[in-house]
Amino acid sequence: MKKIALTLTMLLGSLSASNALAFDGDAEAGKAKAATCAACHGPDGNAPVNIYPKIAGQHADYIYKQLKEFKLGMTSGGKEGRMDPVMSGMAMPLSDQDMKDLSAYFASLTMSAGTTPEDVVEVGKKLYMAGDAERGIPSCAACHGPRGNGTSLAKFPKISFQHPEYIKAQLEKFRDGSRNNDMNGMMRDIAKKLTDKDIEVLSKYLGGLH
Q: Does 111 show up as a binding residue in the annotation?
């Protein structure tokens, strides 16, 4: 918990410097380059298959970061970045400007709304908003915001309205360490403390985020 609090403090202290770096992606150019993305993420960035993430309306900075790390995962043989058998291959031929343009394009779109099953609202809201101090689990809202919109400057992603199946898979990957591109291991530290039930509830709760 102390490690996470310290990380957040350092991060917030550096945001003013980060803000000076303008994101220079071209959404129109990105639209022209996005044809191959539609197969998995849909023509409007709202993936029709729930194992793939919705990327419409996601922060451009976050999309750009992931694309860079998917490419790094391939070029480093999985030793660095984020390795995925599909996305690492897709990112490999992209130039840095391609990544910025695609990121700007998908960020300009609107993420489709999701739903939250009524039976997880109460428990999910408590865990998301307050965490669990006894188990050392911080509030999810501390980084992702009360509405799950995240923040572009800190590169915390929008997670509300995301496919529950995709969120569940990512939390499990953070927990077992197979995904390790989170800043300072923050998500891995948190996910290790989550039970299967916690992950199921949070994933479903975020689908609609009441």
A: no
Per DSSP, the three-state class of 119 is: helix
Which pLDDT value is given to residue 210? Answer: 59
59 marked as part of a ligand binding site: no
- How high is the pLDDT of residue 81? 95
Exposure on the CB side of residue 26, measured as CA atoms within 13 A: 7
- Name the CATH superfamily, with its identifier, for domain 27-108: Cytochrome c-like domain (1.10.760.10)
Taking the C-alpha atoms of residue 177 and residue 175, their distance in angstroms, rounded to an integer, is 6
5 has pLDDT over 50? no
On whether 143 is known to bind a ligand per the annotation, the reply is: yes
Please indicate if the annotation marks 187 as binding a ligand.
Answer: yes
Phi and psi torsions of 156, nearest 5°:
-90, 125
Fold category of 118-207 in CATH: Cytochrome Bc1 Complex; Chain D, domain 2 (1.10.760)
